[in-house]
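pinned: reference chain
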Amino acid sequence: MSTGAAQADSATNGLARRPFAWTFTTPLYVGSSLNPINSSIIATALVPIAAELHVSVGATAVLVSSLYLASAVAQPTAGKLAEVLGPRRIFLYGVVLVLLGGLVGGLGQNLAMLTVARVLVGIGTSAAFPCAMVLIRRRAEEAGLDAPPGGVLGGIAIAGMATAAVGPPIGGLLVGAAGWRWAFLINIPVTAIAMAMALRWLPKDPVPDHGHSGFRKVADRIDLPGILGFAGSMTALVIFLMSLPHVEWIALAVFVLAAVPTVMWELRKTAPFFDFRGLAANGALARTYLRQALTLLGVYSVMYGMTQWMEAAHGFSTVGAGLLLLPMGAVSALLSRPLARRNLVRGPLIASAATMLLGSVGIMLLTSHSPAIAIVLVSLIFGITSASTTVGNQTALYLAAPPDQIGTASGLFRTFGYLGTITSAVIGSIVFRDGVSDHGLHTLGIVLVAAGLAVLLLTVLDRRLMNRDPNRQADTPDTSQNPKTPHQGESSVSTPTRPSITPERTALLAMDFQNGIVPLAPDADALVERVKGAIADVRAAGGTIGYVRVAFTENDWAAVPETNKAFTAVAAGKMLHHEDTATQIDERIAPEHGDIVVRKIRYGSASTTDLHQQLTDRGIDTLVLAGISTSGVVLSTLMDAADRDYRVYVLSDGIADPDPRTHQVLVDNVFPSRAHVIDTTGLRGLLGSA
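pinned: its structure tokens
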């Protein structure tokens, strides 16, 4: 074996043993902490900023709202850019924007400059979480991990919650010792560290395909009109929500005028930025977004509403109120990692809903004469809520989001969280509109009970959570060092490490990608483009490409017996003639010299062809399946190939079915027992490590 080959094998083995080494995760944790710490650290600087700039304290609230607004819009946008342009690249761009925001804010001479700085910081910090999720998902695919890497996801959660909890104390120390400008300047050393670690340790993005480069090509791939429409709609919606209980009619009108054409555009787009059809079909993901928004509404209502009540009605000082809520952040951070490492979803989510209900009832029982220990107990309960909802929903997001859309989905996950946070502030302003009182606090508790019941129903009635088994494998593929114990309500199944691919013994089968069938697939153009990229990757690595099409001669029609339910109609209607345009392979992925091409007259690729013999003659023992439809050619070919002892991979984003529910059931519950389910990015990683 050559030295180069030995080094490649060593790197591959190292990735399999320690896919998430500290050098990979540390920059992701640091990046993920930037947004929450900037969200919370500004709180201690608002009063001195108002004093020095000679503005009212109320006017400085724009420094809080501008970051939330920028983040709500930028998170999914950064996720989409990470999917298309590369997560490392977008992560670094985000860090640069945070650095620039720190400089502008630190040198700012008026409120307008500080607002610009906060917008820059909001946009920049928004890149970290979706980019981290893309990098984690791709690394898991490359390492052959089928289950969520719970420990890493827990670390991301802790990075957010812990820094949010320590933000006010750190801000107080900085502002007290060095002045309010350090609420901005602190970003400079932190971003310098994050940038150095990212450049050194994060894997480089693939070189962009020249055919997909250029502004117009990139704008089309990321759906720039969809992004701009989403940004306008979200901006107007957030402004409207933040103006309540006063109704800002102009903002509402702008929201409607921006949202309606945006929705219409996205519904027509084959690869939309905000996939309304996909989200409607993916109920598990939609429910995850709703649970996150409703639960954070509760958590932040406690942080904002109870803080106001403790200071105005109970008589605690600002420092005292902060200390009474500090246990909530501490408990949340302490529970997150052990919960995440167990890769549970349903259990933590039920715990989140139950503790939210319990804590909300506790709020209804508090009065201005309640002892401090009672307030601490309520905050501790909501600390459990915060930890369990973050861990459960984050893992649910990882499992429910399409692999090729994990960046956008992660950004939308955060956007829904921001909407919950903003709504909590709105509710607080409504219940305390006549003054902060026990009555207002109790009204807040009633609202949170209703929200808690909604979260509970979204969890216990979700059959996907009951059937899904996220606890298949933890951070390491060596299950002997990470044994699993079944827990009540959660099954525990170990999945062996996905083997590496030997390109010379691998064939990618593009099945039924023909002119008459491709238009039947959801998002057909995007599907073909992904398969086209996978074909190019396999060709470049030295693998074989096989094409399968379904087409009939006159004799084939005549030979279909009446006992065949599916193909009797085809024969009777003289459909799919082998010379018709409808049976020709889509020209975008046309065969090349040396490829395998077979014509079949039943569902399975090998059932009525010599495909198996051709593969055997070439020494191929590994198949990668892409095709239309999931319940037809893909299912039939997979079963047959597994019975013939092929090692089978299914491209989750290279297959499609006219019925999204059938597609999802097969991909989630049937295929994993007989094949390795990966996406096109995971295939590229396996080929690259071969």
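why pinned: The longest strand covers residues 647-656. The CA atoms of residues 627 and 655 lie 5 Å apart.
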